[in-house]
Backbone:
């Protein structure tokens, strides 16, 4: 399994902190945001390589970070240098697949999220289901639902439908940016793009994929803290206590 880390955004809401520095490498407690994620995932021993998909502006920061790790890390520069020219998450995923010739099961994660639970629980769920999988959590706010991916599931947690940023949400299940594609489903990313799936939000590919094959959605076993602006970042830095296993 390879782990693709989406880190090509420009985090404009966190300026000036991220004007010349990537959000995933900001410190939270004794580690960077990205270290919390990668160090946790690596305890499962299932990922053989971590691929950081960055933009041209920040790639050198991730190259320097990779040298501090004892695990195999490859940094892919998507060639963009501004928020206006960004490829979008789904095209970044396909760019990495094509650039590196990837033909593997893929764990795809956003590199800028802070979690209080271990992603090894998601990896165990993946092995149990044997299909492509995502996570979901209950979101009561209708307003927040219109800004995220919303999923419908049956009693066996199979996805019945998913929509990114719906004007009229069909459920209260919101999807965080953590996904697993089987090898076979990872081969379909280009087809999904050609079929017209959205490319900005990473969940757009899953919204298309679940119309083609079975995808399951695990209920998130803890909380996710989105580092969206300076206020939320300072709050997380003050309150975060690490991962509960």
Residues:
């Amino acid at each position: 399994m390879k782990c693709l880390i989406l880190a090509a955004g420009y985090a404009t809401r966190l300026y000036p902190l991220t004007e010349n520095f990537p959000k995933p490498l900001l410190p939270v407690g004794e580690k960077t945001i990205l270290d919390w994620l990668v160090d946790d995932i690596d305890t499962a021993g299932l990922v053989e390589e971590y691929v950081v998909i960055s933009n041209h502006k920040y790639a050198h920061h991730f190259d320097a970070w990779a040298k501090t790790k004892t695990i195999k890390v490859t940094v892919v520069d998507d060639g963009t240098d501004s928020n206006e020219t960004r490829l979008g998450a789904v095209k970044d995923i396909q760019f990495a697949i094509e650039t590196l010739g990837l033909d593997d099961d893929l764990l795809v994660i956003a590199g800028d999220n802070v979690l209080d639970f271990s992603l090894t629980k998601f990896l165990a769920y993946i092995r149990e289901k044997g299909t492509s999988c995502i996570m979901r959590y209950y979101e009561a706010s209708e307003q927040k639902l219109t800004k995220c991916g919303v999923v419908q599931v049956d009693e066996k947690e199979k996805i019945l439908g998913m929509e990114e940023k719906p004007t009229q949400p069909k459920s209260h299940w919101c999807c965080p940016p953590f996904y697993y594609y089987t090898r076979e489903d990872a081969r379909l990313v280009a087809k999904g793009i050609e079929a017209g799936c959205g490319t900005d939000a990473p969940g757009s590919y899953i919204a298309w994929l679940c119309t083609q094959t079975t995808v399951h959605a695990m209920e998130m076993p803890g909380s996710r803290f989105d580092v969206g602006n300076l206020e939320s970042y300072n709050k997380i830095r003050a309150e975060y206590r690490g991962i509960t296993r």
Notes: The two ends are 22 Å apart (CA to CA). The mean pLDDT is 95. The first strand starts at residue 2 and ends at 7.
